[in-house]
Every structure is written in structure tokens, then in C-alpha cells.
Amino acid sequence: MASDAASASVFDFEALALDGAPAPLAAHRGRVLLIVNTASACGFTPQFAGLETLWRELGPQGLTVLGFPCNQFGGQDPGTAEQIGAFCQTNYGVSFPMMAKVEVNGPGAHPLFVHLKRAAPGLLGTEGIKWNFTKFLVGRDGRVRKRYAPTDTPAAIRRDLDAALAEPRPAA
């Protein structure tokens, strides 16, 4: 994997699916990704509905939404993988891929989130993720395009997603 944030591709990383199975991001090569750190008991949790809408409407055009549960902010996702999956499906009909719970900040931060934060720093250049439902837009080429605050709703970023989806697929 490339060590330089400018040259590394998100497709170089691997995560675990919610069921614990390996989930290499390379499986999404050529697709636009919206990577979100999620939580089941947060004021922003209703954004699951908007994320699901984006997945259903834009998935056929090449968008993949990836949810990464995180319990680092106010202990708002303490459940097991089974509890998280059931909650998301029952309450919001989530069918987009959900990954295993991760840390997004600190020494235990998942390498993917270390990369995302370096490639798209937050306000005033800060890298730390401030809260649940921070979102990262990744182009078809695997490069991080933009970071969105938790207050940016899925509907509010639709124009950026449409623009990323309109870009040509990279040559193999």
C-alpha cells in the first residue's frame, strides 16, 4: 500500500464486514464510495434513512455506501455486530454494506480512517473526526474527494455524488 496520502487509493485497504468476513475495498474498484462512521443511538442516526435512499437510487449508477459503526463518541454504538445489524435493518431498512465496528480516532484508529482523515482534513486542517456520521466521498479512482460534517445530510451532498458518478471510470 502506498504510504503517501496523495498517492494512496482507498481500494488498497481492507476492512471486516459486520459479520466478521474480510471485506477488501478493492471489491468496489471503479465505484464511487461514500464512507460513513455511524452510530445507532446518536442524534444523527436518522441519517441512515437518507443513506439508504442514496444507496437504492444511486447504487445502480455506481455508488456504494459503506457504514462503519463506531462507539468512540458518547458510547452511542455499544451493541454487538448482530445488534447493530438488526437495529439498522429493522429501523431504517439498511441494505448497504455495514462493516465491523471500528475506531476512527486515536492509536487504535482503523488504517482506512487514518488515510481518509489525512487525505481530507476537517475544518482548519484538523484530522480528528469530531462526531458520528462524518462522511467521506471517494471517486471511482479510489482518491478521497471530500469530507462532510455530521450535520451535512445525505440529501445535501447529492449534487457532489451525482458529479462524482458522472466522471468516467478509470482505465483498468
Automatic annotation (TrEMBL):
A GO molecular function term, named singly, is: peroxidase activity
Q: Which GO terms describe its biological process?
A: cellular response to oxidative stress
Listed A to Z, the keywords are: Oxidoreductase, Peroxidase
The cross-references to InterPro entries, in alphabetical order and at most eight, read: Glutathione_peroxidase, GPX_AS, GPX_CS, Thioredoxin-like_sf
Q: Which CDD domains match?
A: GSH_Peroxidase
Catalytic residues as annotated in Swiss-Prot or TrEMBL:
C42
Q: Which family does it belong to?
A: Belongs to the glutathione peroxidase family.
This one is known as Glutathione peroxidase
Task: Name the source organism.
Answer: Aquariibacter albus
Name the lineage.
Bacteria, Pseudomonadati, Pseudomonadota, Betaproteobacteria, Burkholderiales
